[in-house]
Design brief:
It is found in: Membrane. InterPro entries: Cation/H_exchanger_TM, Na+/solute_symporter_sf, NAD(P)-bd_dom_sf, RCK_C, RCK_C_sf, RCK_N. There is one protein chain. The chain has 613 residues and is of the alpha/beta class. The strands form 2 sheets. It has a 6-stranded parallel sheet. A hairpin with a 2-residue loop joins strand 8 and strand 9. The longest helix is centred in the first third of the chain and has 28 residues. The chain is built from 25 helices and 10 strands.
């Protein structure tokens, strides 16, 4: 490696490291990190101080970053949303099936994009109408998902519809881009080979599905072996190589690998490892290098390109606003416009399409630069617009749906205590089991099942709820049902087990467990050793409450500056897998779970302030 290559690599790595720190320091929350990385690349690259020289190392790492970005884009797709039962939050809206609605809207986006692309061809901005159609119709799932989460819109009807439109657009445009390359690439006419690629993908899915539950795989997933991570990287490289062999782009193979891993429902720990590796190392290098290679001086030197930039941004906006206006039937104008603005955001697929178009000689380097610049602008402007104008009217009235499998003396008291404003219970019990409390039949509506087989439970819609609680009398069956629920993508699963080995297995796949025997033993021990601690849990005046930090307005606020004058004391903050003891300099973060104690009226006030935005 030459000295110039080493210095350029160091500069890019340092730039990628400092970018999120600077965003945090100057509180630039409206700018996505990946967009900031492109801007930093502009500063150190050809458009700025020209500190970075081209090198094989940077080109290789940048390409790997792009491949891994496409893999994570595929992994980000939650295929379970296509099968989830549509729960009407508001019966008067009479919402249609969200998958059908999202598909109709995307078809409208595609048709309108084709018409707008024809105008660009007509006025001589580009020669290929199909490439421009793909560019205009793309939607960035990587921008839509975090924006919806920050706005606490993921569990709302409009949020789910926006998410579905983005997922369908991401899948469809990637497949259409592969078909486009098969027609216009060096090995055009081999489109049938794409079927071979997808056929191999289907085969690998069934192979992965068979092996993922094997006991030896679980044993090899820890320590220095990490067989799951090895399998993922093997899958990526194999499908990337196969994709290039059949004349498609390597990004299609990477995207397909991500989609396959998502379908196999990996455990959250593996996903976090892949995210950490991708967004912590390779992907920042790619985005910094996008900015480095972008030459704004040459871009602004061509009047035609200067005219193209605002026109293209307007086309991106128009192609989303008109089809999404179909939602006006169920939502107010402000919500519909905010939704269409968010769907205008686009980034990685535009970069992919522009790079491919330049390589195939369909567009110029300056045109590719204009596409990247418009994509960056869309990611800065549209999410900020959505956050400002979207009003979450559903979240405050949102009830979490909870399915209880098995009704007994452990669950009946809980059912009676659950706040009906926040939770909607659905009870499932077999006809063969005796219900301990006959009065419960008159209080609660109980769905009787013939058995607890997976098919029976799916037919009854047990897994189509936010939370699944498994508490049958058969502990082995509890483990089986809980594992199956996580495999189907249920976010929160709670299971009763009394066996430490079972408890360990379920915790590893993200299942929350409880034990009646262990709970009784722990409570008795606490009563003997620390009776006042037990009082916190049992006495109404001193009990603990959990509050979710959903208000983006308090993101980054330190507790000593938090403008709340009630008597509430923060006992603990749970952030992801971390448990934080709060102090004056602790900063609040979105999605923090705050454990607090205090008088109920002030707790309610704090909950209104932080949870309902």
């Amino acid at each position: 490696m030459h000295g110039e290559s080493v210095s350029s690599l160091v500069i890019v790595i340092i730039a990628a490291f400092l970018t999120p720190i600077l965003l945090h320091r100057f509180r630039l929350k409206m700018i996505p990190v990946v967009v900031a990385e492109i801007i930093v690349g502009l500063i150190i690259g050809h458009s700025g101080f020209n500190l970075v020289e081209n090198s094989d190392w940077l080109e290789t790492l940048s390409t790997l970053g792009f491949i891994f970005l496409m893999f994570l884009s595929g992994l980000e797709i939650d295929f379970t949303i296509f099968s989830k039962k549509w729960r009407k939050q508001n019966g008067s809206k009479n919402m249609p099936n969200p998958v059908k609605l999202a598909t109709i809207i995307f078809i409208g986006i595609l048709i309108l994009s084709f018409g707008l692309s024809y105008l660009f061809v007509l006025f001589g901005f580009i020669d290929n109408i199909y490439l421009m159609t793909l560019i205009i119709s793309t939607i960035s799932l990587g921008v839509v998902v975090p924006t919806l989460k920050e706005a606490q819109a993921m569990q709302t009807t409009v949020g789910q519809t926006i998410l579905l439109i983005a997922v369908i657009a991401d899948l469809a445009t990637m497949i259409l881009l592969a078909i486009f390359v098969s027609f216009y690439g060096d090995e055009s006419g081999n489109m049938w080979l794409l079927l071979l690629l997808f056929g191999v993908g289907v085969l690998l899915y069934f192979v992965g599905k068979y092996f993922r539950n094997q006991s030896f795989i679980e044993a090899m997933s820890k320590g220095t072996i990490q067989i799951g991570t090895r399998a993922v990287f093997t899958l990526i490289i194999f499908l990337v190589a196969l994709s290039e062999s059949v004349g498609a782009e390597n990004i299609l193979g990477a995207f397909l690998a991500g989609a396959l891993v998502s379908l196999l429902a990996p455990n959250q720990e593996l996903v976090q490892k892949l995210d950490s590796f991708g967004y912590g190392f390779l992907i920042p290098i790619f985005f910094v290098m996008v900015g480095v290679d972008l030459d704004l001086k040459a871009l602004f030197g061509e009047p035609k390109i200067l005219v193209l930039i605002p026109l293209l941004f307007f086309a991106l906006l128009l192609s989303k606003v008109i089809p999404v206006f179909l939602l006006k039937k169920w939502y107010d104008t402000k919500t519909v416009i905010a939704s269409s603005m968010l769907l205008t955001s686009t980034l990685s697929l535009v970069i992919a399409a522009g790079t491919i178009g330049e390589r195939l000689g369909i567009i110029t380097t300056e045109m590719n630069g204009a596409l990247v610049l418009v994509a960056v602008l869309s990611c800065i402007i549209t999410p900020a617009f959505f956050k400002k104008y979207y009003v979450n009217e559903e979240e405050a009235n949102y009830q979490q749906s909870v399915s209880f499998i098995g009704i007994n003396q452990a669950t009946i008291p809980v059912l009676r205590e659950l706040d009906p404003k926040d939770f909607e219970p659905h009870l499932f019990h077999t006809k063969q089991e005796n219900l301990d409390d006959s009065k419960s039949r008159s209080i609660f509506e109980i769905n009787e099942l013939d058995n607890y087989d997976f098919d029976t439970l799916e037919m009854a819609g047990v897994f189509q709820h936010d939370i699944v609680v498994v508490t049958t009398g058969n502990l082995e069956k509890n483990e089986e049902i809980a594992t199956y629920a996580k495999r189907l993508g249920v976010e929160r699963v709670i299971a009763r087990v009394e066996n430490p080995t079972m408890e360990k297995r379920l915790k590893e796949i993200g299942v929350d467990v409880f034990s009646i025997l262990l709970s009784s033993k722990t409570l008795l021990k606490a009563l003997i050793e620390s009776p006042h601690v037990v009082n916190i849990f049992t006495e109404q005046d001193s009990q603990l409450y959990e509050i979710n930090m959903n208000n983006a307005g308090y993101e980054g606020t330190v507790l000593r500056e938090f403008p709340f004058t009630g008597d509430v004391i923060m006992v603990r903050i749970f952030r992801g897998n971390d448990s934080i003891v709060p102090h004056g300099d602790t900063e609040l973060r979105l999605n923090d779970r705050l454990i607090v104690t205090g008088s109920s009226e002030y707790v309610d006030e704090l909950q209104q302030l932080l949870e309902y935005v």
